[in-house]
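Dear colleague,

Following up on yesterday's call, I've attached the two folding results inline so they're easy to grep. Please treat them as preliminary; we haven't cross-checked anything against experimental data yet. The first protein's sequence and structure tokens come first.
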Amino acid sequence: VVHNPQSNMNNAVGAARIIDMINKGIRVGLGSDIGAGESESIFRAIADAVQVSKLYWRMKDESKKPLRFEEAFWLATRGGGEFFGHVGGFDPGCELDALVLDDGDLFLPDGLDMIQRLQRDVYLGADRGRITAKFVAGRQIL
């Protein structure tokens, strides 16, 4: 399954219960859908997936926990990458697809760990000017 949260919102078809799918063993990835969305940004898709799941949790069923940032990030990387083979991660033998982000121009409060810094960059739209390098299949393309 490829979850496109903007498409779900713009077509008013509801909120996909991604956690339920994962718990049932269904392979899920995260995508962006410019046909029914307004952005190709996977960072925007990560933020939207978390926000949609929080709305579902708060407004529809509080027994269904919302998607956490780490889970949405996994969907955007490893979850989608598994469809194509051993990609989407940094473990040995995994094909390297990666972005290098520079958050040096942002105020960095003391105590933020790597996940918190990444989360902040995703929500602030790090793909708009903070990407300093891109690697696809182990080859640097930017």
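Below is the second protein, in the same order (sequence, then structure):
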Amino acid sequence: GGKIGVLLEVNAETDFVARTDAFQELCNDLAMHIAAAAPEYVTVDEVPADVIEREKKVQIARVMEEGKPEHIAEKIVTGRLSKFYAEIVLLEQPFVKGDNETVGEMLTKAIATIGENIKVRRFARCRPRC
């Protein structure tokens, strides 16, 4: 087996909302996405500074190797950091079931539909050992 387990904490303001089908479906979709896309963090703010600095150094070195002018290097690195975040941050990743929307955008739509503030607090993704 290629089975993957996901534990997910999603908070709503009331128990009533947490029991609705729409909320349950949202949680299911989020868990499925986490299983498929393997994010490491919920938000960009959770990415440790040392991880960001390491990635910046890698990207700056790549830009210099490519021979790009220094005055545009910072913009290129910023763009590449956005792509990096889209790989490791849940709310920045393209939603696996969506059409060109991020998980964050999908969550915003769900909040508008459900009518209550909803927050993804944390998650854990694991594979059982055989």
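For the second protein, one point worth flagging: The beta strands are 5-12, 118-126.

Best wishes,
A.L.
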